[in-house]
Task: inverse folding
């Protein structure tokens, strides 16, 4: 009798994880019975469903509906509900993605049940332990059996921390999905008319990190900086920053910024279209720094450090924090770096194929 394929569960819950899941999910069906748990960390239509529809993701088998909350409450709820879900699904392996509370809680629930974990986007470090994402990724890496690292720097970070087994050079799944979607992105030309902007003549801005958004002084500086930048600025606002602007009574001040186009969070293809035609991208998002780099748009990162150091060393990205002086200086400068448009494959294989292959091999030898 033919052996039944093993069950592998992907645990996702936040916008960047849906994007990373897309290429992997398409491959995993060949090697396993793939199931998806959605933690419900992101639950707005714009932050979740849109991505499942546009990227044709498999519908979640289980939704934990945890919603928002403090870190302890959100992480704790995911941990508790995930344990129950994993007991019912009985997987041979769990895959987690990135660095959110869903990543850590999902990984922890799995290892405590004796289920091995594979971490996609392992080894990234900001070396700033006050950042929730840094805590999540460090802890997750140390309890994972397979560590799919995207860059040589990430590999080195893992080795420095003494993690020497289970390392897999997978390349970057976000680069892969971007390539898969590029033909559809090029067809999104009416987006610019809808928003009322001219390609190449606007700055794309996003902000959502706790360090920037939950501090009223930093958020106030951000609004002042926008006021001092000439020309159109497109700002698709994450719910976290919208909530904070209301809470700190800065929404009116933002609304009066000249040439500011405040809009809802954009779906994936629209987001890529906006990045690729932007004069400059100003962001604190990890994913958008990379996408700007891949698409050849100059990027100013509104943080003091980045996990994606290659974007800096190649001259495509500049760290500016929320310093008005640094931002104004960087906006005047012509970008010097050329975007990396290399093939995303590693030795002829796509990241998702490498991940699916490594999962199959790992389960075969157990
Ligand atoms: C999370 C991740 C971050 C990732 C980001 C992508 C953690 C610690 N952080 O931060 O690594 O880069 O997602 O977006 O896991 N909210 C809504 N609707 C939603 C989702 C959130 O209104 O669909 C609001 C909630 O009120 C909440 C706030 O946004 O207070 C923050 O949500 P949270 O789940 O902490 O995630 P992010 O800030 O998005």
Result:
């Amino acid at each position: 009798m033919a052996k039944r394929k093993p069950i592998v569960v992907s645990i996702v819950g936040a916008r960047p994880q849906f994007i990373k899941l897309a290429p992997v999910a398409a491959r995993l069906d060949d090697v396993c019975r793939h199931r998806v748990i959605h933690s419900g960390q992101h639950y707005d239509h714009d932050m979740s469903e849109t991505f499942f529809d546009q990227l044709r993701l498999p519908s979640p088998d289980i939704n934990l509906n945890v919603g928002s909350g403090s870190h302890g409450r959100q992480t704790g709820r995911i941990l508790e509900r995930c344990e129950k879900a994993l007991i019912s699904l009985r997987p041979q392996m769990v895959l987690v993605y990135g660095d959110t509370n869903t990543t850590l809680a999902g990984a922890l629930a799995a290892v405590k049940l004796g289920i091995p974990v594979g971490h996609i986007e392992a080894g990234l470090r900001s070396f700033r332990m006050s950042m929730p994402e840094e805590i999540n990724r460090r802890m997750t890496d140390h309890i994972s059996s397979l560590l799919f690292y995207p860059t040589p720097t990430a590999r080195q970070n893992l080795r420095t921390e003494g993690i020497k087994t289970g390392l897999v050079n997978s390349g970057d799944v976000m680069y892969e999905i971007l390539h898969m979607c590029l033909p559809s992105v090029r067809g999104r030309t009416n987006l610019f008319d809808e928003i009322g902007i001219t390609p190449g003549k606007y700055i794309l801005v996003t902000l959502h990190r706790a360090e920037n958004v939950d501090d009223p002084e930093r958020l106030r500086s951000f609004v002042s900086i926008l006021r001092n930048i000439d020309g159109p600025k497109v700002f698709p606002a994450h719910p976290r920053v919208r909530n904070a602007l209301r809470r700190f009574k800065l929404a009116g001040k933002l609304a009066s910024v000249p040439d500011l186009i405040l809009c809802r969070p954009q779906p994936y293809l629209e987001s890529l279209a906006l990045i690729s035609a932007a004069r400059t991208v100003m962001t604190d998002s990890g994913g958008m720094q990379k996408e700007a780099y891949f698409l050849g748009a100059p990027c100013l990162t509104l943080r003091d450090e980045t996990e994606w150091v290659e974007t800096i060393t190649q001259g495509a990205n500049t760290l500016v924090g929320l310093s008005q002086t640094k931002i104004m200086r960087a906006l005047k400068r012509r970008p010097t770096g050329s975007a990396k448009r290399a093939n995303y494959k590693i030795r002829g294989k796509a990241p998702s194929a490498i991940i699916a292959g490594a999962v199959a091999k790992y389960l075969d030898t157990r």
Notes: The first strand starts at residue 7 and ends at 12. The first helix runs from residue 15 to 28. Residues 128 and 134 are 7 Å apart (CA to CA).
